[in-house]
Design brief:
single chain, mainly alpha, about 75% helix, elongated
């Protein structure tokens, strides 16, 4: 799950660092960012395998889905109109921080379960 996020971090850095004239490089970088979707599918499957009881599974699945929805509502707010010329640094920082947390959290959970 953690390693699915590494290409997304690389893609985000490339989108920000590639020059604006390199259109296809930036498009490919955006495509790379979408590899983080695999970690969401793994998250839902981990819940099914690691949470006992129907009510607990349903509650944990709801909380995961609620977090996903809240993230999708908040994320576009990081793209500020006044930052367009600079390449939306607030959004890039938010994406890198989010992807970093998404990388570290499963590793922490794995170490805590041992």
């Amino acid at each position: 799950m953690s390693f699915c996020v590494i290409p997304s971090i690389i893609g985000t850095v490339l989108v920000y660092s590639l020059p604006s004239v390199d259109k296809w490089g930036r498009v490919a970088s955006v495509w790379i960012i979408y590899t983080n979707s695999a970690s969401l599918a793994v998250s839902f499957s981990v819940i099914g395998g690691n949470v006992a009881g129907y009510t607990k599974k349903t509650t944990v699945t709801f909380l995961l889905f609620l977090g996903y929805c809240v993230g999708n509502i908040i994320a576009p707010q990081c793209f500020r109109d006044e930052e367009e010329k600079e390449g939306y640094p607030t959004a890039i920082i938010a994406m890198i921080v989010s992807f970093s947390v998404l990388f570290i959290a499963p590793l922490v959970l794995r170490s805590e379960l041992r």
